Amino acid sequence: MSSLVDYYNDFIYKNKLEERKGIEQTLRKLENGENVILKAPTGYGKTTLTKILANAVERGNEVGSRVIHVLPLRAIVQDLYIKLMKDSKDGKIYTRSIGAQDMDYFSSPFFMKKVTVTTLDTFVMNLFKLPPVESRNIFNNYGSHYELPRAMIYSSIVIFDEAHLIGEEGRPLTAFLASLRVLSEVGVPIVIMSATIDEGLEKTIKNYINVETIEANDFSIKRNITVSKIDDPIKDARNQVKEGKRVLLTFNTRRDAIDSYMRLRDLNPVLIHSKFNRFDRIELMWEVLDRNTKLVISTQVIEAGIDTTFDVLITEAAPAHNLIQRAGRVARYGGNGEVHVFPFRGKVYDEKEVSDTYNRINNGVDDSLLVRREYKVDNTLLHDLTVIDSIYADAKRAKSLYEQVCNIVRDTSIILGFPPHSDSTMFAIPLSKDEAKKLIEKGYSLVPEGRSLNTLNCLQLQMIKNSILGVRIKGYSREIGGILE
């Protein structure tokens, strides 16, 4: 059995699954040497593709020897990794060589596992000769083994999942497109997946690589979703829970989510956002998946990769693709559901875009909300990255570029925040560069203790060069996560 379609048929038959023609068509395209954009609705089961390819790379095929699944958020990496490991243990996936690599997981540092789940940041750094696992060596001029992860990438099938989030404007989009271009030029099989790729992003991608679009139209769940606008999300959440409904309450900022959690504590809600440590986030995720949890309060981390369903979504107004993803958690497996949208509170997203979306939601929260956007690409950075990929450029050139722009993937760097009395990265939380700067300026110590910095410019790079792990935060609570103020 060497055909990818044979592995598809084997997986569907043995696991008694309904056929997914979109996935089958994707596999056929890959075998024909074509790249694919797979547009499939929420609940379609896109990650079945990764599981099928995992079996193919374990048992043998002619397309790739590994699978690298790239995601935009660490929380989704964790969720998918756990699912793949469970399926491996249950015998659905034939290989045990499954790893995850990001700020939390270090089981596939050079992408040598048969299946690696990783973030865009880690993938891009490995592709462009700056493997994160050796960052201290690189920036202290000790060299690195950068061609090892690159060799693994170039012999893999690469899946970019939740592409609507990967394709955020600015450096993430530019790094994504640079990756697509260099991978495509050497024939690495590429799959780009999302439920909400708008026409503008799809066109932008097609400006850089040859790729075929497959729209998965073979799947439909009978969902009856009513949409309404409300003013008081706290009152609404309380009423819905009292009626026995399972409710997802979503905000655009962590502070608003925490404030609402404190006001609704008597309902025993589960709070989830980006500033929980790895261990608590795993436990919280299981609580979110538990149908007995009647109220979940969340930020954007709930938007992708969370396979659970709610009766009611109460959400702050947001851009169209964010709302569509959030609404995808309602009646996910069919039936009736409600989406209640309250006014935008003015943070995180562009106010004009959100206002336009909010004014159009009377007709429903679905793909009709998506409008064509024009995406801006940093062509200078894209050119510099593609030059680094050439055999004539070594890690010194990549290092020089990183020092020049401070981060080749994000417009703001991620710094680790350590709770009092712990220097273990296992208990650290992610901080933005600005959050870390504020803490340092207020006198919070660096980790390890006794270290100092001469400048806060290009903060993440300065920490790497000076062997600093991160900065101390005010506190940490299992209930509400990191406490910064």
TrEMBL record:
Keyword Cell cycle recorded: no
Calcium recorded as keyword: no
GO biological process: defense response to virus
Domain Helicase C-terminal: from-to ranges: 233-376
UniProt cross-references to SMART domains, sorted A to Z: DEXDc, HELICc
SUPFAM superfamilies reported in the protein's UniProt record: P-loop containing nucleoside triphosphate hydrolases (SSF52540)
A Pfam family reported for this protein in Swiss-Prot or TrEMBL: Cas3-like_C_2
InterPro entries reported for this sequence: ATP-dep_Helicase (IPR052511), Cas3-like_dom (IPR054712), DEAD/DEAH_box_helicase_dom (IPR011545), Helicase_ATP-bd (IPR014001), Helicase_C-like (IPR001650), Helicase_Cas3_CRISPR-ass_core (IPR006474), P-loop_NTPase (IPR027417)
Keywords: Antiviral defense, ATP-binding, Helicase, Hydrolase, Nucleotide-binding
GO molecular function, one term: DNA binding
Family annotation (NCBIfam families): cas3_core
Sequence ranges assigned to domain Helicase ATP-binding in this UniProt record: 27-215
Annotated protein name in UniProt: CRISPR-associated helicase Cas3
